[in-house]
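As a warm-up, study this chain.
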Amino acid sequence: MFIAANLKLLRKRSGKSQEELAQALNLNRSTYSGYENEVAQPSLEMLLTISQFHKVTLDDLIAKDFSKYVDSDWSSMENHWKTGAKGTNLRILTTVVNSDNEEEVELIPEKVRAGYVAGYADPEFMRDLPTLKLPFLSKNRKYRAFPIAGDSMPPISNGSYVVGEFVQDWLSLSSNSPCVIVTNNDGIVFKYVFNQLKEAQQLLLVSSNPSYEPYTVSVENVLEVWRFVSYISKEIPDVQLDSEGMGASFRNLQKDIQQILIHLSDSNSKA
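Now compare it with the structure written out below.
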């Protein structure tokens, strides 16, 4: 393994001192220095954190000798994320088809939500899922329905299902797009997505409920992206009218009451 030598080389390429890099990784300097000098071995979790910080793969950090890299090797490694983000290599997408060889809209039940990260590419897992047919969806796109938990994205309530369209090229995502994001760490989440891939190789995820803080997810942690198309809910959204809207609603109600009173008065006079 080339961990120690690679750590030292990556730090020098970043232009940081051991103290600065240790602070960035929430370590003390002596601990980080021990990694570079082979006095201590970083844990697997720390290796993953370091690889994400330097935007290299964990495999490369452990097994490749960076001292032998030329400029083209560094360029290829630093831009490897683009291949994944653009979907240049076909993404694994296991689907269910009906007897007419048409793709179904798979529905992910709440009870198997946690298992989706492990089973999304497993044909048997997908084959056991219920499906639904929504005639207003395009036959030329791929859709899937995901369960929504919590209150972070009103007016879509807890227990609803969001129908998403599969996104092959994540770089094409427009910022402020509502999407279902499937990640290694957090599983299925539904958020407004702000595309920061070109600048920082990450997505900024924002809730419509201001009580929830925005957070970022690195491109290496993203498994799938599904752009919001529609949602299915058993509840009617609670719409809060502003003062102008309430006034208009009240005036319309008064008109309706007046019409009813006139109709009753005409009925009584005829009687």
